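UDP-glucose 6-dehydrogenase: structure, please.
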Amino acid sequence: MKIAVAGTGYVGLITGVCLAEMGHRVICTDIKEEKIQLLKTGRSPIFEPGLEPMLKNNLLSGRLEFTSNPKMAYKDAEIIFIAVGTPENHDGTANLDYVHAAAYSIGMCIENDVIVCTKSTVPVGTNDKIKEIIQSVKPPPHQAEVVSNPEFLREGSAIIDFFNGDRIILGTESKSAAAKLEQLYLPLKIPIIKTDTKSAEMIKYASNAFLAAKISFINEIAAICEKTGANIEEVAYGIGKDKRIGPYFLQAGIGYGGSCFPKDTKALVQLAGNVQHKFDLLESVIKVNNRQQTLPVSLAKNVLGSLEGKRVALLGLAFKPDTDDVREAASLKIAKRLLENDASVIAYDPAAVTNARQVLGDEIEYTLDLQIALDNADLAIIATEWDQIKHLPLELYIERMKSPVIIDGRNCYSLRDIRRHSISYISIGRPSIIQDKIMEGKII
Ligand code: UDX
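Here you go.
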């Protein structure tokens, strides 16, 4: 099939490259000329395992093209995917300017019947608006059918997710459009759920809100575990064995970040408000997450007292491992809070330093060497569970730090391993291990 993709951000690029890999002819377009030029050389503007080799292969085969000229992309496409950004407005609602502009541009450029398939996360009713915009600029005989086809790709495993998703959602009022999309996705052998457009739009928000709720729930239980002496890992394992609960998304820690959960939960609260429903549960999920993201700083003050003049090694900047993305990452809030408390911060991350520097500037130091980060540090805070951090021998904390205190926001180490070392260790929802010399005069 001849496919166009509007937007070469995370979702658009993965979608375009993977559809080309399936054998389709794909042309991706973006308003950012420099991004298109980079992509034409086979280089990816985003860090995603496996993406660049697949991008290069498909460029070479001629199945994949990039253009900044929307007319080139849309004029004879059979299916056009809209995968442009829906950033957050000040009030938490989703900004649909890019989506509406893409719809307008599609209407201006198409020269035959087309299926417009929305991958961007959009509030309920947006696909109706997309159809209205296209029709307003392109009167019949050209037909544009709209389909809501939300994506569930996770950063860091997006290619695997594309080819092995749990389900594909197709929301449309057009039977022929649903049949065509079904044909497109059939080789993936992923269950396809056909539904109406509005339900499909809601499925995306509800999925992300539910997963966010699982995380905040387990973090609340972790807080109670800490106070009662229970261990959150034992508890999560025990409840996860119940098939109705399931074992996933029960990892307690310093909360969720990234480009989806924080934005989509807020947008759903707003969406509910628009129809006079106060989404109390989701508001609490967001509140718990905000508290969780800066928890390491409160814990640090409990152990060390004042943080003034203390050197802190912040281990991990990305919102999760295997990505360079720092959007809504807990690390950023932790770094700012540490600076407000007059601590000095040196941050380690194997991939996200460039992106973090754009937000935090030079107020903190950065290093790509984990051991250098630990040198002479009073405290180490683990914000991302990178393998490099998980596999770091504990002896190195002892060798490099002044008197090792670790606040582990991602529960990277087993308590049994920690107990074999002279390290003070505070994690999330598990008993703390504090060495006597640290305890003197401190509130634990
Ligand atoms: C998420 C959804 O999983 C995906 O379906 C959607 O398309 C986009 O949003 P992503 O943001 O890439 O994907 O990351 P994900 O792996 O879901 O993790 C999100 C955040 O939750 C991370 O900060 C992670 O550290 C945190 N998390 C996840 C937890 O704190 N505990 C968990 O048990 C799972």
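Notes: The mean pLDDT is 95.
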